[in-house]
Amino acid sequence: MERRNFLKSVAVAGTSATVLTSCTSASGAAGHELTAGHIVHTVYFWLKDGLSDAEEKDFLNFFEALKNVPGIHSFNVGKPAPTTPRDVVDNSFQYSLIVIFASLDDIDTYEKHPDHLSAIDKYSKYWTKVAVRDTELL
């Protein structure tokens, strides 16, 4: 597999999501151009053990609740890729979210938006751990 094209479109529980298609390209997800200054907000979710299929499906509504928060440049949901196991790879999470923002002001709006906060309150019952990695593109 060619490393610069290692992420592809994924299906998540019957919903389609597109993730970044190239790590060396200036193109972003869903046809949006990524440029210096954009913020890549990556969130990893570890779900509680023993969730039923219905509970996991309900958890996926969390992403639907976030999609329309103002300031989002692109929005992508995924699961761990079946890449070659290596010491530096952590595929222990169940879902990831990649949201691109055009500016720090946009991510600030997102983080404080009532829909974002409400979704966290409603769906956090399904996860045991969340890790956030924010990157400002050069």
From TrEMBL:
InterPro entries: Dabb, Dimeric_a/b-barrel, HS1/DABB1-like. It comes from Sphingobacterium deserti. This is Stress responsive alpha-beta barrel domaiN-containing protein. Homodimer. Coiled coil: none annotated. Transmembrane segments: none annotated. Pfam families: Dabb. Residues 39-135 form the Stress-response A/B barrel domain. It comes from the Bacteria.
